[in-house]
Structures are given as C-alpha cells and as structure tokens.
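Hi L.,

You mentioned the student needs an example of a multi-chain input paired with its predicted structure. This one should do, with 273 residues in total across all chains.
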Amino acid sequence: MPELPEVEVICRGLRPHVVGRRIQEVVCGPKELRLAVPRNALQKQIAGATIMKLSRRAKYLLFDMDNGRRLLVHLGMTGRLGIFPAKAVQALHDHLIFRLDDGMEMRYNDTRRFGFVVVQERTGQENAPLAQLGPEPFWPEFSAEYLKKKAAGRLQPIKNFLMDSRVVVGIGNIYASEILFAAGILPTMPIGSLILDQWRTIITISRQVLTRAIEAGGTTISDYVNASGTPGYFQLELAVYGRAGDKCRKCRAIIEKQTIAGRASYFCPRCQK
DNA sequence: CTGTTAACCTGAGTGC
DNA sequence: TGCACTCAGGTTAACA
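Structure written out for the whole complex:
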C-alpha cells in the first residue's frame, strides 16, 4: 500500500493521538504477519510504556517508548494504522490492538499480512532492519555524485534502482513511475549511462513529487487511508501510473505499460527518452 | 557482484 | 452465480 508519502501522512496523523499516551495493553490476533508477531516483547516491553516520540524512517513508523524500547511498524502492501474509540467494532484483519490510556485504541489492520512489527532496544546504533537503509530522498546524502557512483558500470533499469531501499528509501512502484515521467527519463534506461545532470534532475523531481504527494494526503488506489480513515487525493494528479491507454496530459501521446522486474511500469513514449 | 523471478497472502475485478 | 484467472502500493530469498 504505502510509499513514503502515505507513511508520512499516517505518521503526522497519528502523532497528536499517540505521543504522551501510555499503552495499557497490547492485544494480538492469532495470525502471524510477514515476520512472526513478537508477542512476548509487545506484552513485556511495549505494554505499560509511554510513547515519547513518533517518527518515520523509509517506510517504517518508529514509536520511541519511555523505557528505551522502540516499536517499529512496517505496513507492507495493505497495512493500516488508525485510531478508534475502544468501543468501536473491530474490523476484519485487525491483527494488533494497542489500548491507550485515554480510552482510544490504535489498531493495526492488514489484509494481506505483508507488514510486520519489531520491538528493539533503542541504541545509538541502528539495528536491523534500519541499518542497511540508504538515505532519505530529502537528505543531502542523496546527491547526484552519490547516485552516479552507485550506478557506475551497471545496466540495471533506472526504475528498479530508484526502488532499491539500499540506494534511496521510500520510493515504491507508483512514485518511481511518476518521478521518471516528470524527469523525462524512460524507466528502462540503464543507470550506468546517466550523466550527472540527469541525476540532479531525478533528485530535484523526486523531492518535488514526494512533497506534493504528502501535501495531497498521499495516493489512494484502493484501500489506503490515513490515521483518521480519510483517503489521499494524489491519485488525481498521477500523470502515468495506472493510465495505460490514456492520453499523456502533457503531449497527448498514449501512455504505455511495461513490466520491468516483475512490476507494472507506466511511461509516456514521447515525453520520456 | 548483478539483475530478475517467485514467494509470502487476501480480495477485487474480468471474462466465460 | 460460479469458476478460473490476473493483478495489486513491499520486501527478499533463491536463482541464473
């Protein structure tokens, strides 16, 4: 489901509801997520602790507790986190319930169960799975020189490269297509052949597209909603994703769809070279 | 090392 | 209605 903009919107939406709240109890459903649910740690280390800070790194939500622990939540494809009154009827695929000390509950719902949660010690050093992540798109480390060096001599399509979290985090299948359209570069372009100026364009455009998507509340294709259950509206601004056969909004050529590394990719054959 | 495929899982949509 | 099939916002082990 969510890429960087959607996770960021959820993070901002949740923050006022959870920061300063004590988690009184964690209720785990019977099913496992992509990684086994750490029931023991949730009961012993998260229940009873107070959420001091909520932040985002890549597509992870980070709940920093007052007891030195950190709860890490990844939403996978269909994961949702929302705030509900304790008496609200539970939904199908609610897998985790965090009972807060103000009568509200934060519920983790995930139809396909590709998401997962991790409880870890909050140390100065990042532990797995955060340790291997590349820079955020908005960090200065995400530079043209960095990308050029990483890409040197390689034939990988630029779209896969942008979606590789070791290179840069947060860009998934929708925004990879959108960024490359806005940058005027074909998704199949081999990364080794890009020049510094093109990397500069990709960086600038990435930041623009992601920022605009956050402002629009994220992209809702089928079931993404923010923490309050409100959909995003960036899908109205999508230039190519899901628009195969439709006319390019810039040049009226027909948008094409091509599978690259097993993922649907969309582009305008006239605007992108 | 490089790059692609398949797998994890459920539900929605399509065509017959 | 029912059935078979395809596809979906992520990640990663296994493979060539």
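You could point out the following to them. The CA atoms of residues 185 and 273 of chain A lie 5 Å apart. Residues 34, 76-78, 93, 110-114, 154-157, 160, 222-223, 261-262 of chain A lie near DNA strand B (CB under 10 Å from a C1').

Best wishes,
N.
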